[in-house]
């Protein structure tokens, strides 16, 4: 993970982790992080969009993650795993710049780097289920009614 956007995702994860622990508002978490860490100007807008977007859609994201994280409640998940899932779910559901495979792969890489030995498998499984469930069916994309089964 060496690209500009990958580094922005890593920084966003750190901020979301902090916000999850402290319950501070997103703007405060961003301000503290940006004051204490160098973030290239070219990455700043993407970082801020990830943090604000994830925080802004948190209730909807958490509801969906609860549905697709089979046998896991959000409060039982490791804080880092929960926030990797939130960040990636935001990109999958609300981001129109990142292809789903890239968002999932980036999340898996974050889980390998910051999570437990099993985090990457867990993150991949939850995000794959979420993505498949949220993906429009071809019939819906074309505007035709689905064929009866």
Please provide a written account of the structure.
The protein is mostly helical and 149 residues long. It has a single domain (4-134), classed as NusB-like (N-utilizing Substance Protein B Homolog, Chain A), CATH 1.10.940. Helix content is 73%, strand content 0%. The protein has eight helices and no strands. Helix 1 (4-22) crosses helix 5, helix 3 crosses helix 5 and helix 6 packs antiparallel against helix 7 (119-134). It is globular. The chain starts with a helix and ends in a 7-residue tail after the last helix. Mean pLDDT is 88; it is low at 137-149.
Question: Radius of gyration, Cα only, in angstroms?
Answer: 16 Å
Distance between the termini: 44 Å
Strand content: under 5%
- CATH homologous superfamily - what is it? NusB-like
Instruction: Estimate nothing, just give the exact number of structural domains.
Output: 1
The appropriate CATH architecture is Orthogonal Bundle
Unreliable residue runs? 137-149
Task: Tell me the structural class.
Answer: mainly alpha
Count of distinct strands: 0
Within the CATH hierarchy, at the fold level, what is the topology? N-utilizing Substance Protein B Homolog, Chain A
CATH hierarchy class name? Mainly Alpha
SSE inventory with pairings:
Blueprint lengths: L3 H19 L3 H11 L4 H16 L1 H11 L10 H16 L5 H15 L4 H16 L3 H5 L7
């Amino acid at each position: 993970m060496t690209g500009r956007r990958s580094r922005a995702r890593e920084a966003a994860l750190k901020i979301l982790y902090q916000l999850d622990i402290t319950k501070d508002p997103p703007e405060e978490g961003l301000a503290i992080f940006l004051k204490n860490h160098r973030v290239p100007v070219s990455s700043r807008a993407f970082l801020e969009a990830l943090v604000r977007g994830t925080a802004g859609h948190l209730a909807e994201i958490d509801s969906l993650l609860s549905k697709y994280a089979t046998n896991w409640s959000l409060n039982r998940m490791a804080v880092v795993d929960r926030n990797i899932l939130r960040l990636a779910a935001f990109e999958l559901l609300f981001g129109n710049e990142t292809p789903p495979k890239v968002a999932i792969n980036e999340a898996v890489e974050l889980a390998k780097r910051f999570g437990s030995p099993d985090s990457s498998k867990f993150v991949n499984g939850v995000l794959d289920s979420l993505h498949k469930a949220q993906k429009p069916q071809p019939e819906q994309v074309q505007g035709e009614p689905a064929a009866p089964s």
